[in-house]
Amino acid sequence: MGHTNWLNEEEMNAWIAFISAATLVDRELDQQLKEDMGLSHLQYQILMTLNRAEAGAMRMTELAERIINSKSGLTYQIGQMEKAGLVTRRQCEWSKSGVLAEITAEGRATLERAAPGHVEAVREILIDVLTPEERKAVADGLGRVRDRIAERKQGGTCW
Amino acid sequence: MGHTNWLNEEEMNAWIAFISAATLVDRELDQQLKEDMGLSHLQYQILMTLNRAEAGAMRMTELAERIINSKSGLTYQIGQMEKAGLVTRRQCEWSKSGVLAEITAEGRATLERAAPGHVEAVREILIDVLTPEERKAVADGLGRVRDRIAERKQGGTCW
DNA sequence: AACTCCTTGTTCAAATTTGAACTCAACTGT
DNA sequence: ACAGTTGAGTTCAAATTTGAACAAGGAGTT
């Protein structure tokens, strides 16, 4: 230690490309969804995640982790979406302190209407811009990045 | 048109990995910077960008574009950082309506103290987790993604 | 049961972000 | 000089996010 191992040009390029693409893509998708359907990207992800879950329902904490959001933030968003009729809250059967967020029929309908435009945007902005090799590198490399960060929050074992 | 060209598994993997890594990395860095130095990632980026600019100063709008932020958001952040003594506002010489944000000596000092830890974190959570090939794919592919989005906002030529 | 510790989800205030409206300055054409 | 238009920054209210504090349940121990 002592001296910092600065990024060289090649590393810097990767870093800058990653961080700016991340910001821009997120912003772009948010706008597309908002214009087309009045949904935020976060809300879309919530609907998507619930829709895939069995019974279309999921515990708040698990949902928060899945979409990478704070618990209080999720409470807020589910509140909004409940007002909009996209989801409902229901008590968890086997635990009195648990709450299930469940997608409604209207939620599913909204998702179905939103999905085509969203997927098209994802292709146009990201997926179709990458070569198959780059896609693989992104899937593998960034997948590993994600897993490592997720593990480290979990394990807690900080050596 | 008509039928949606859904993402296949390979594409889905790339998409999911990208979006979750993006969220997690940003979150992680924000936390590291905040704990170590009381800076948000955005503030770090502002200091960084100003520090590199000649004379350590830059027009508000250009700065906003560079760090990918709304103009009003930047006005707010520069306000905060001005209170904290990290930057100053100065009138643009050749344009009375222009404002220059300039990094102060204290700002530079803060940046210098923050940089080593930040770079280390960037390595640990992203750069060193990728193979050189993956880094190249990320730099090239996501660089292209970034450029395309940037162009399209610019050109405005929507056909 | 009484006690302690951990987990769930919510609440609350403060910080931040967003987008539209607004103020001036700069540029155009007359 | 004078409208008409555009560009730069700011302001403002509303929406969202954050993190700490909180109420209530579970689970384990004595």
TrEMBL record, chains A, B:
SUPFAM superfamilies of this UniProt entry?
Winged helix' DNA-binding domain
Q: Which domain of life is it from?
A: Bacteria
Q: Where is the HTH marR-type domain?
A: 1-147
GO molecular function per UniProt: DNA-binding transcription factor activity
Q: What is this protein called?
A: MarR family transcriptional regulator
Q: Quick one: a GO biological-process term for this protein? A: response to stress
List, alphabetically, the InterPro entries matched. Answer: HTH_MarR-typ, MarR/SlyA-like, WH-like_DNA-bd_sf, WH_DNA-bd_sf
Q: Which residues form a coiled coil?
A: none
